[in-house]
Structures are given as structure tokens and as C-alpha cells.
Amino acid sequence: MIDLFGGDAVGTMGAMQVSTVFACVRILSESVASLPLEVMDINSRKEVYEPATKLPLYYVLTTAPNEHTSAFDFWSSVVQEMLLEGNAYIIPEYDPVVRGVARLTLCRRGTVTYDAMTNLYTVNDMEQNVQGTFTEEEVIHLKNVTLDGKHGLSTLKFARLTSRIAVQGDQETLSRFENGGNIRGIVSNDNGVRGFGEYQDAELDRAARDLDADFDSQRIVSLPGGVDFQAALPLFNRYAVSGDPEVYRARNLPFLPRAACLCLR
Prior knowledge:
The chain is of the alpha+beta class. It folds into two domains: 16-157, Cytidine Deaminase, domain 2, CATH 3.40.140; 182-190 and 197-231. 40% of the residues lie in helices and 23% in strands. It has ten helices and 14 strands. Strands 6-5-10 form a three-stranded antiparallel β-sheet. Strands 7-8-9 form a three-stranded antiparallel β-sheet, with no helix packed on it. The longest helix has 19 residues, at 160-178. The two termini are 28 Å apart. Mean pLDDT is 76; it is low at 1-7, 235-242 and 258-265. InterPro entries: Phage/GTA_portal, Portal_HK97. It comes from gut metagenome.
């Protein structure tokens, strides 16, 4: 669970429901997954490294890390785990026949416990049939931002304030659509409304109630003479419309307002 300032705690899936968070995670993960991977092996005769496209490891890294996942989906999921959870744990499986790595398994979320004192990983991923205790040499541990070199921290933990703003913006946008996009604002006058003092205030209050009823019924609204109406747009609703640049900045992405608007649509 991630505390997004304001008392509410949301999980990873809850954070992904924020359009800007989803867009940032998707851009980063798919961009990394699209990068080409090369396996280099030393040529004993020339004593230089050359591409080794015939090694089993090349097929595992570039085509299919395991029988269930393509290379693109695998590495995309790895980056998503790093961004959202802070850590990604990969268990390589060796084949004595080919004398190399024959399979890579990305452990499911919450199935790995790391003991920093003993440097041991306890894996209990029953879905993928990976269980046991592994040493550091047997686990590929990819970390996001780390403060101690052993535990990765989720980007959401650092960007919880800006994520909270984005959450509020999405909630406000939802409430606007739920009530039919009814307009809210401030009713005032130019001192032309009849009455004075508390009588004038009563006239304005009555005009405000009439306007509110007209807006709720989605009828054409006419303003009484001397009454002025100014629509109010909450600040966090502007974030919902344009996208919060801080959410992008926290993920080291350029802020593109137009792209943010497309994501919201």
C-alpha cells in the first residue's frame, strides 16, 4: 500500500488508475522493452567480443524468456515492477545440456522476501512453481531508486504528493461527468437588485437557488436583471484537464499537455 498524502492509502493497481501514472509507466516500460539486446561472446582466436546469436542465452533474452512470455512482454513487466514496487526479481534456470541459461522467471508481486542480513531470497511463487531459498548469485535483483543498495523504492513513494493531486483531479472530473457536467459558480450583483442589506442578500440567495435548479434540470438559464454569474473551475480540475507536470517530472519524462489530454479521453 502507498500513502498518497491526505490519509488515503492506495495499492499499485489503484495508482495505475490515474491516467498520468498509467501513461508514464507505459511509456517507460514499453520504451525499454523495445530496446535491442545483444549477447556478446569472446572470440578466443581474435581475442575480441563478437555477437553470439547462436547461444541459447540469445534466444532467451531476445525472443522468449520462458514458454509463456515474449521478450517484449517480459522486459516490459520487469520495468513496471521496478517503477511500481521498487524491485523486480528474476530467477534464471540453467540447463546442464546446453550449459547455460534456458529460462527466466519473473517472480509474481509479493512472492519474494529478501533478508538483508543473510543476503538470502525466499521465494514462494506457487503459480509459476518457483519455491525455495536462493543466494544472491542465483537471483537477478533489479532495483529502482535505492538508498542502501539492497532495497529498491517505488517511484510512487517519492511522487506521492503529485500522485495525490492527480487522483483528486481525476475524482473531480468524474464527479463533473456524473452529475451531467452541471455548472457551479458565484452569484453576485451590480447593486441593481432591489432591496438593501439583508433584503438584498435574500434576493441574491433566492436567485442562486433558482439558477441551481435550472442547471440541475439542464434547462436554458436566464439571469435576472442586475444579477451576475461567474462559473468557478477548481484548481485541481485544471490539473485533470491538462495533466500535472510534476507527475511526469517525477518519472523523468517530458511533460506533454496534449498527450495528457488524450490519455484522459
